[in-house]
Amino acid sequence: NTPSGIPYNKINPATGVTDYSSTISLAALGSLHLEFVYLSEITGDPIFAEKVTKIRGNMKRVKKPRGLYPTTVSTETGDFKSSKDT
Fold it and tell me: Is residue 84 part of a domain?
């Protein structure tokens, strides 16, 4: 539940407390996206997949320096925060 729809990097499932970090790695973002879609499939509840549809839209929207995806994404704005490309 971030302003950008990009999830926080870590959350304690027992307490719901996040690490409130301002960035997430592109690799972690991709993994969470796949996990949430799969969670919707196995539970039959579309809410999890709906949460991560913002990730796809965001990745299409933001500028990609030199046409490549940088390694970190801001959880607040959804913009890329790294000068390293993948």
Answer: no
DSSP 69: -
What is the number of domains present in the chain? 1
Q: What average pLDDT values come out for the chain (86 residues) when binned by 10 residues?
A: 80 81 88 92 95 84 84 89 63
Q: How many Å apart are CA 75 and CA 9, to the nearest integer?
A: 9
**Containing structural domain, residue 53:** 1-64
Whole-prediction pTM: 0.74
Helix 47-61 vs helix 26-43: crossing angle, to nearest 10: 150
Tally of CB atoms within 10 A around 27: 11
